[in-house]
Amino acid sequence: MSFKKLLNKTCEIQRYSASQSSTGQLDKTWATVSTPKCRVQKRLVSQNKDLASPYADASHVIYMLPDVNVLDEDRIVVGANVFEIVAVQKDSSEHHFEIFAKLIIQK
Predict the structure, then answer these.
(1) For the chain, what is the domain count?
(2) What letter does residue 98 receive in the DSSP assignment?
């Protein structure tokens, strides 16, 4: 089975932006910059205990193809769940991204 077929969810990659309103107030928003296919996997507690910070805070790993534009400062929305990105790294063969993330909103 190809890696692409394992990507069974659609993620929203959201990027933080701030703009000034007509009254001068700073409006903070998250804008969706892409909607790639992904796979979300919950991490076991035992996987976290041996990791150096900040990876130890990650509750999930989100897998994506390596051509996706995703930054450490972004967040990922999958359905009603919102994940804060802890770290983004490519696997050793640059075959895919492994995004370590912390679930911050679950509905």
Answers:
(1) 1
(2) E
